[in-house]
User: Fold these one by one.
Assistant:
Number 1:
Amino acid sequence: MADPAGLHTGLVVGSFGRHCLIETPAGERVICHPRGKKSQVVVGDRVRWQASRDEGTIEKVDPRRNLFYRQDEIRTKSFAANLDQVLILIAAEPEFSESQLSRALIAAEAERITPIIALNKSDLVEPFEQAWGRLLPYQNMGYGVLPLSLRQSGEVDRGVLLGHLQGKTTLVLGPSGAGKSTLINLLVPGALAETNEISQALNSGKHTTTSTTWYWVDKARTTALIDSPGFQEFGLNHIAPAQLAACMPDIQAHVGDCRFYNCTHLHEPGCGVISAVKSAPGPDDICSRRYKIYSTLFAELSQPPRY
């Protein structure tokens, strides 16, 4: 269907370098190219596009509800737009980075996107117990934490996951070895094979880890998963140091107890955050690991830009 300007509406369901895959309201898919040299289009965008022969040109991106992205000193990497939630998949083995987990959670909080943490490999009893213990502060903050064993109890886990994903658009994040490919294929059988076919159709020859792809979980197209490339670093340069506490629920819970309105929670007298760190461990206190992450990030985000 075209609008009064003759443009068609569509949903971006694949991003492969300079190529995008657009899905029409009827479910057809068309290869499109953003107009201009620099593409600002991401998976999840609603766009207006102009047909030309068997491909198309993206002319306009509709306003977004949100955009999940990371930013370091050199570049910005956008994952996806218009999300309902982010599923952060980590594993009991190899040991997950709590700093990377916290960074992803902060990025989600900054965009008001609901995060869910899923801990895979519950069949590895001792490593799982240790990892689950490390996640207790996150449960105390109110985050959903799901235990999974994707290779051992696939259908059980599929039911658990669908209960949290039904009717929503979810971005799946996960480091190498966490089981992200297994999770995607469990919920959308043949998904990665489909990505290979799309990639070949776009003349890239093979599936590239820099691609981001949208998958429908159900035939009614009400539940969607977005598979994102893995990452080693997660920069938060787009977040101001003064905004950091508001993006960390355990820190934010004690900000109102600070003597000074502009407290950095690092050294000021009468700081409610520092007091909560020093208190006896309890569900409402701040664990030392989390406070160290806050302090490290505050220092990182306070560095002057390098030119």
Note: Residues 203-209 have pLDDT under 50 and may be disordered.
Number 2:
Amino acid sequence: MSKELPPALDLDDAAALLAPLTELVARAGEAILAVNRTVMTVDGKADGSPVTEADLAADRVIAEGLARLFPNIPSLSEERLHLACPPYTCSLFLIDPLDGTKEFVAGRAEFTVNIALVVNGTPLLGIVGAPALGLIWRGLIGRGAERIALGADLSILDVTPIRTRAMPGPGAPWVAAVSRSHGDSRSEAFIDARPGAIRQEVGSAVKFCRVAEGVADIYPRLAPTCEWDVAAGHAVLVAAGGIITDGHGAPVRFGGNRIDFIVPEFIAWGDPTAAGR
């Protein structure tokens, strides 16, 4: 297989990336868990968000792995934004080495390692690892999605196909995955306008995965976030049968066409037929 992927991506080539990228996510998660949260250094970025030595350790693992495995495919990490050369019009790895740093600093388990392969502005393949939960979710558009349970030695204990569920009917309760650390008034208004919601507080990209595996129905985020926060979960959810749109029903695009790689808003729907209702 060529190490560079053509714009018209062959799904067999993309499928061949799943195993090495899954291993890379698992090893990055291992690097995070090796950091002692009680004594680690926590610094602040220019935007006020925290960064820890665990973020940087995971980023090193991923950067070295991608450079070795796929040197001809550009990569963009949250921790190496100064190296970005947007816009990216062909293939791109979008990386968040530790999504949910606030969860990690607080001692909670819902933080993730996210790697997505974006082709022509759309996430095609996504891997979301939750090292403290011993889980990895991964998806390839056109080939489906699955949840992987890992052993302490990073061995694969179980692989379970996952699928989104149909939206409950009128009057029936439905589940909205919401952020524990990043709530916003527009998302709350969106949920309040649809009676019967049960809010499920979840950290990091795990919210996408809960919708992808049919535990939640919708994950609305009608406030700005960044492409590396969204891309991997986007691929997992769509591969599992869902859809992600902006607040007007249009697709969400990736690759740096907006300044600072901002995603102004999105809604992750488990049931595509429910979008826009």
Note: The helical segments are 11-33, 53-69, 101-105, 185-192, 206-212, 227-239.
